[in-house]
Each structure stands twice: as structure tokens, then as C-alpha cells.
Fold this sequence. Notes:
Blueprint: H1 11-23, H2 28-37, H3 44-65, E1 72-82, E2 85-94, E3 99-105, H4 110-124, E4 129-131, H5 136-152, E5 159-161, H6 168-181, H7 190-207, H8 218-224
Parallel strand pairs: 1-4, 4-5
Antiparallel strand pairs: 1-2, 2-3
Function: Involved in the transposition of the insertion sequence.
InterPro entries: DDE_dom, Integrase_cat-core, IS_Transposase, RNaseH-like_sf, RNaseH_sf, Transpos_IS6
Protein name: IS6 family transposase
Amino acid sequence: xxxxxxxxxxxxxxxxxxxxxxxxxxxxxxxxxxxxxxxxxxxxxxxxxxxxxxxxxxxxxxxxxxxxxxxxxxxxxxxxxxxxxxxxxxxxxxxxxxxxxxxxxxxxxxxxxxxxxxxxxxxxxxxxxxxxxxxxxxxxxxxxxxxxxxxxxxxxxxxxxxxxxxxxxxxxxxxxxxxxxxxxxxxxxxxxxxxxxxxxxxxxxxxxxxxxxxxxxxxxxxxxxxx
Length: 227
């Protein structure tokens, strides 16, 4: 259960504001106005603090509760502006488009790619195959993961495919994230970017039906993550 003590606002109000910001392309000032129209007087700075504090916690719950994913992965990175500079946003989906994992990095190199693959495997298990682009860094990172798997004697290594058209599914999936982050006009700090992106991915997972709905609306599924 996520603790909302000391926030001075009802839990449902906080969750509604966070969900609206993460699901729709609005700025904090837009959201401040939307909340005011609903009788809630909250400034954009407070809304920002709510997202940064609670979005990562909700994302962790979503990862632990999501439905099983396929063993054929698609991995790619896109760009997110932080403090006026472009950073690298690693993402992976399975061959049906379900979100696997995501990671923001200040660098695009072998170490970053390896860290991302180890993180994704820790969350989803070892895949049968991974489709990547022609990036040498991604290839080297995945090959280093295979070395670790061989050393551990697990008997499983990952088949690596570098076939551009097979990655169309994740390139299309990037568009949702870009649509939501567009009105944000970049992030002022790396940690707030990480937190917000984790929340956006959670809302996107709900949109794609990756959680057990049990007849709940999208917002109700989101709110249930806090229980």
C-alpha cells in the first residue's frame, strides 16, 4: 500500500490529478486549471511534487501486477530532453506490443544497453530472442548479457536479430510517450524525468490492457495500484 499521509489532499484527488497528467497531453498549468474547474485549488508546483513522488511507486506496482509477456522482444531507444539536452530513453516491448521495461540514460553506449537489458530481464525473465536496430552499442550490450548467462550456466542465451522492419512495433509505440511529453517542453531534472516517464508508461500499460481490469475503468485500475 502506498502511503499518502501528510499530503493535505484526499488520496483520490491526488490519484486523479496524477493519472490525468500522465495519460493526456497537458502541462501542469493546464492541469491546475482543470483541477480548479472541479473545485480543487492546487498549484502546479504541488502537482509536480505529486507526480515525482508517487508515479515511480505506482509504476513499481504495475510492473509486479502486469500480465505475462511474450519471450520475443523488440528493443529501441528514443530521445527525451532533460535540462536542455537530449538524453536516451531505452524501451522494450514484446512482439505483441506489450510494455516490458524502460530506462532513461544520459549516455548511449554498451554499458547503458547492458544495464537496460539486465533490468528488463530481472523484471520479465530471459527472452528467447531480442530484435534490435543496427546500433553497435545495443548489440555489444546484449552480447555481454549472453556472456553472463553462459557463465551462470543457465543454459539459456538470447538470439539476437538486427532486422529493422521487425522493430516497427516499438517505433510506433514510442509515439504515445512523445505525444504525452510534448506539452511538457522538456524536463528540468533527470530524476523528475525518470519519475514522470515511469508514470506515463504505467498509464500506457493500462491503455494496452496489461493489467487485470476486472471490470474497472482505466482510472480505477490506476488507483488500484495504490491499494
